[in-house]
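Internal tracking record. Fields below are filled automatically when a chain is submitted to the structure queue. Please do not edit lines marked as system-generated. If the sequence contains nonstandard residues, flag them in the REMARKS field before resubmitting.
Queue: standard
Priority: normal
Entity type: single polypeptide chain
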Amino acid sequence: MAEVINMPRLSDTMEEGTVAKWLKNVGDKIEEGDILAEIETDKATMEFESFHEGTLLHIGIAEGDGAPVDTLLAIIGEEGEDISSLLNGANEGSKEPENKVEAPENKSTSDVSEESSKKADSNTAFEIPEGVEIIKMPRLSDTMEEGTVATWLKKVGDEVEEGDILAEIETDKATMEFESFYAGQLLYIGIKEGESAPVDEVLAVIGPAGTDVESVLQSKSTSKTETEEKAEEIATKEAAPAEVKEEKTLESGQRVFVSPLARKIADEKGIDLNAIKGTGDHGRIVKRDVENYVPSADISAPAKDVATKTITDSRVTIPQILPTGEEYSEEVKNSQMRKVIAKRLSESKFTAPHYYLMIEVDMDNAKASREKINNLPDTKVSFNDMVVKACAMALKKHPQVNTSWNGDTTRYNQHIHVGVAVAVDEGLVVPVLKFTDQLSLTQIGTSVKDLAGRAREKKLTPAEMEGSTFTVSNLGMFGILEFTSIINQPNSAILSVGAIIEKPVVKNGQIVVGNTMKISLACDHRTVDGATGAQFLQTLRAYLENPVTMLA
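SYSTEM-GENERATED OUTPUT FOLLOWS
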């Protein structure tokens, strides 16, 4: 009897998965324990093995496609077994009955699935011609909601081979190459360079030369286009007589157009419209022209045109010239990275109850130890590397800080992955050092340098920015003495590191010159109590003030 294999839940937070690669084809013999596919979850790409034996009769999710947990993934059974009832049953339970798969005898299941998806994509009776593929904005990371086309590497009319790089797409985490899974001619580009669009927006159309692209696109948006055209037509008709109402005659007899708002502002300010040069269409005077108007400072000009203010006292009247100038601002489009940073930080700040603990650390021994370490050949360690190592060791002693809030449960992470915040041109990224507690100081230094360099070049992969259990943010190199950070969820805490400064300190009852560094810990009060956070900082201070203990 055939067995239905559904999309598995491979992690506790997984809601949907993507088939990264099928390792078996329809018709292959399957043994129990064989790897069926590689499935990308919200955290990693994992191998999925079969718990059944038989023949792979059906693949329900194509490579590269994603689907919710429990969606039909595959069917395994006896060779030649009739599975039409299983396919129909799976689709009757679907929320979208129009996608129901009915496999006629003369068509393969994959052909039926392809036909079904194309029909579901069409809002009209027009059928997309064979060989024509509509390419949509891909989801290149698990958190991506929209993308920006950084560069098109192909232009309309170019021949495209399967595997060719079509474009470079900027996600919320990195700029990634997007390759074509189809061959044909690039017929249409839907999103221009520098423009952003949500995931699944039409990115391009590939197909045979001579294809009627307009019909393909109109099959999805005909009604919308007609509505827009009607709206534009009405707007044009209504706008035409409006300019007649804005008409004004100058003293010279020449006619000029002025917007009602501009006339109102000019009347309120007592400005003569004859003196203003319009910058609107056909020389029309608009609001900005009146607001930016600077009266002539000529001595012969009437008093009302001179930008002066009179200060009077009992003995003398002094004219004071007021500053004048043009108000100017510029709208800059937010990058995809900046928008996602704003969203994530807002979610963290307004959902996690933050509190902050701050201490000052004596860094005299750390400075001396670092100098000795860096005198060794081929060795380079920074103070930040020492902080990261100390955090990893402190987390082992205080597992409550290495947790995540999950609503009804708290996840205690048995592994320690420290994220290191790195400033890039468009915002902030957090590459992750996996199993940080198992790395030496020099390994941490090498890894951080490599990850930070590739982060600034946008060469990090999504996997290198996922999975942190704790985060370190260091602004000491910018001379910042102390600051607080917003927690990088789903972490429970983030450490903010300030600059090391030389100042008078009291040691053994004497005032001497010392080196100190201020650090602050932001904690999620749902998972980390104040006493727990304080104990973590005490342990962290002990490691930093006695670096030799980190080398044991």
